[in-house]
Amino acid sequence: MAVSVPMLPLVKVAMPPRSNLMSALESVLYSGMIAEGEAVYEFERNFGKLFNLPSALAVNSGTAALHIAFLMAGVKPGDEVITTSMTAEPTNTTLLQVGAIPVFADVDPETGNMDPDSALALITERTRAICVVHYAGYPADTRRLRVMADSHGIALIEDCAHALGASAFGKAVGVIGDSGIFSFQAIKHMTTVDGGVLTLKSAEQVPEARRTRWFGLTKGVARTEVDIKSAGFKYNMNNVSATIGNQQLLGVGALVDKHIENGRFFDKALCDIPGVKPAKVISGTNPSYWLYTMLCDGSDEVERRLGDVGVSASKLHRPNHLHSIFAPYRRDLPGLEKFYKRLVHIPCGWWVEERDREKIVDALRRG
Ligand SMILES: *Cc1c(COP(=O)(O)O)cnc(C)c1O
After folding, report:
1. Whose CA is closest to atom 6 on ligand 1?
2. 279 C-alpha vs ligand 1 centroid, how far in Å?
């Protein structure tokens, strides 16, 4: 039997140091206050401060944050929302949840991100919002999308689930949009087991977003006097997740830096290998490389070759329009097809060491 090589994973759960986390968790679990409370508000303040994001609202998933973001953008049943198919499914299943029509813009074949020209051509009288994803942690062209959204009076929503710590045009991702969402699901840059954050450009929208995450109720008003005017959801973060989050925030800066260091290494090391091309980084943006994106001739063969030397490499996502549920919204996406055909993600997170990087580059060179 062949000796099996332990595989270098494409994604990995990051947990804070055991002793710190366990004592913090023990305190909160036996505090008598495990639901939404001080730990959540502390997490919101700490997260907003660390990543330069105003009005961070903690919720129980990135999907919940997206749902609230679409509602806050005024998306109603029958409205069109320009979106991308090159993303994880929640970006678009959430659109169906609010009754919107997902209108798939094409992507730039060099970046995998929404092509602003394609988005512009799809704006109609029924367009309510543009939802842009910073795919794999590479910022999209939010500067142009912002101008387009403003000139048409529609909202811009940034799905930053892959892009914690990335910046675009001098600002954190999530700030250029009317709203931004982050995910703390297991395998993202940072996890709270499950959780998310919604950021809002307009502080005036915060009270309504807060009510929407908690049944439509206003926190702090006596339960016997409070009045629900529109139905909200059970989307709040709890103190236990927030305690994990607060511990994570102590170390996440260093983890994200490691992703960025590895990503920049690959950007340099791969640029002269025949048949392999790093995804393009839009000038003025700084990716946080949740995954590293390569564009390769013979992507299947490249995946196999990396697998042979113990490195997980894959496309990871399925373009959403290929799912049956999105069949009614399919359209020609030649840029996406070109990107997806050549796409290979390789590991570049905090667990990737110098020798792993060398191994990957060697394997690709020998290709
Ligand atoms: C993970 C993810 C989400 C949803 O986040 P959850 O916390 O899992 O609900 C949304 N969009 C993208 C692009 C994601 O990768």
Report:
1. 62
2. 21
Residue 87 Cα distances to 131, 284, 293, 310, 315, angstroms: 11, 22, 13, 26, 11
Q: Which of 38, 110, 54 is nearest to 342 (CA)?
A: 110
Token pair in block for residue 305: 């070759």
CA of 66 from ligand 1 middle (Å) equals 9
Distance of alpha carbon 222 from alpha carbon 219, whole angstroms: 8
Residue ranges lining ligand 1, Cβ < 6 Å: 61-63, 87-88, 90-91, 133, 159, 161-162, 183, 185, 196
Atom of ligand 1 nearest to the CA of 91: 11
Give residue-wise pLDDT tens across range 282-321: 999 999 999 999 999 999 999 999 999 999 999 999 999 9
Q: How far apart, in whole angstroms, are the C-alpha atoms of residue 252 and residue 196?
A: 15
N- to C-terminal Cα separation, the chain: 26
Q: Which residue has the tokens 């791969």?
A: 270
Q: What is the DSSP string of 13-58?
A: -----HHHHHHHHHHHHTSS--SSSHHHHHHHHHHHHHTT-SSEEE
Summarize pLDDT for 208-241 with one digit per residue, the tens. Answer: 999 999 999 999 899 899 999 999 999 999 999 9
Supply the pTM of this predicted model.
0.97
Under 8 Å between Cβ of 316 and 112: no
